[in-house]
């Protein structure tokens, strides 16, 4: 089955426009041109596209095609126009203002079509009907098929390190001088095969154990109890949603529930490697080890005897001076890896199938505790029907998506606030305390009188600040500025509002997806990329 998404391979998407180069002659209006509209050839290209586009479709026809794509998704769009209606791809592309030379290969045509559709899908128009915290409460109250997308932010209050914050796992890996060019290498498969001991020296910190679910986990459980949860797509590998009993969920990035031998692919229960994880040892496959030992008996004496189930990682020393002839001590060993998805690995087919099914049923999207930086999960937001309302609950704004209601701040505080407005059926139950922790956390879980939180609205916008919000984020300032300028100058507020809701990023089409020409102000574009760099460092 073709994928709804660009690719189900896991990558961190730093820039939203990381697409492969296009064949010569292809043009996306002038959105990626750094030269600006003063360039004469640019104007000629544009005139040619506009003329061809107008000859092929009326504005209404082009708008209808764009609406079809945004509502029904990429898969249905290609099926409808290319397969059923037999429309040539170069003609389909004209509806989006993209001109491709007719001699381009079918492969190139399909590639340009996919890239173009992805760009259109990323330019979601905010639904004007939903703006306030009360709107969010009303949406949750009336919705029956809520798709929840969760990330590390829902678990940070449980003491599980997140990955990208200043005190997160990556920052600590850097600080503690592990020999990683990039902290992400810890979740890089080739690196794991070479130095599995690095992963296993940190694995216990993210292993699902010794943690109590947060109010965010309990909120998702409440949605399920109230028969409102379509599915929880979580990027987390900490097992806390399972611990609290959420059934309708998908572990997009796998879990520690099972582990597999990288050589013979045998799956073991996660408990088989638990002792090794806590002892920072690299587990080896007992089946392959037995075969290796058998072979060794019948072969001339080996240089080194095979390891037992576990090898001592402390014995490992990297010898930089011997880099040229360096062979990893783990080379050829039957390494066992938990079935969490590493960078560069594909997500399971289940992810694709579920998403195709769920997009037909979903009536509300709630994103909690993720900055949507890791693809393909981050693409879920743009691939659901655009008429489905979207709510963000996160400490930081997510500039590259266009949510209808943005609730910034500490996730636990925000969901508690929402639950208090949702009535008795949303009374967050006390979390089950793991046997190991009994007595340790009992006191902190004593019910205490919570002060009522009063969220602060950013001007008259759809953005609300709760305690813990990143108030200084440039995106928040842009929204405030846009709305305040809008009040001063009612006549000319469209571009400012649009700029703010776009998060300062360029989008391929103007609001509504029409073919008229637009470009975000350069100053805002530069500012946004600056902020990106700062956050990455
Ligand atoms: Zn094996």
Automatic annotation (TrEMBL):
The keyword NAD applies. InterPro entries: DHS-like_NAD/FAD-binding_dom, NAD-dep_histone_deAcase_SIR2_N, NAD-dep_sirtuin_deacylases, Sirtuin, Sirtuin_cat_small_dom_sf, Ssirtuin_cat_dom. Residues 1-44, 484-537 are annotated as: Disordered. It holds the Pfam family DUF592. It is found in: Mitochondrion; Nucleus. One of its GO terms (cellular component) is nucleus. The active site is at 253 (proton acceptor). Its cofactor is Zn(2+). Signal peptide: none annotated. Residues 126-425 form the Deacetylase sirtuin-type domain. Zn(2+) binds at residues 261, 264, 285, 288. GO terms for molecular function: histone H4K16 deacetylase activity, NAD-dependent; metal ion binding; NAD+ binding. Keywords: Metal-binding, NAD, Nucleus, Repressor, Transcription, Transcription regulation, Transferase, Zinc. The keyword Repressor applies. Its main location: mitochondrion. PROSITE patterns: SIRTUIN. Residues 1-15 have a biased composition (Basic and acidic residues). Residues 31-44, 484-495 have a biased composition (Acidic residues). Belongs to the sirtuin family. Class I subfamily. This is DHS-like NAD/FAD-binding domain-containing protein.
